[in-house]
Amino acid sequence: MVDYLSGLIVCTAFGKGRTHDFRLFKEHRLPFGPDQMCLVDRGYQGIAKFHDESYLPHKKKKGEKLTSKQRRFNRRLAQIRVKVEHVNRKLKIFRILSERYRNRRKRFGLRFNLIAGLLNYELTHPI
Hints:
Layout: H1 21-28, E1 38-39, E2 54-55, H2 68-93, H3 108-124
Parallel strand pairs: 1-2
């Protein structure tokens, strides 16, 4: 979970092996306040059952086009979510997410949180 305004990594969740993000969200019940907005991609269909203030992009139906309002909404959502994607990019630079993790599985969470802490420190203490 990434804070939109600061770009800091707020919390993390891990599963054993390859696990979809939405499954992790449902299993770990990440801490969302009732007034917090949750901006997600199409992989989180059904998140409205768990959190009221969640927003997904609109999907074009077969044979139809999106309205201009829906296209503007999708574009604005993507402009906001790009900050999260930049944080994912920074994590992939450390190669913990971009390649197969070949060390002990028990230590993956510890190392990931350490890298997240380094990134948060870098954001709060610019050179």
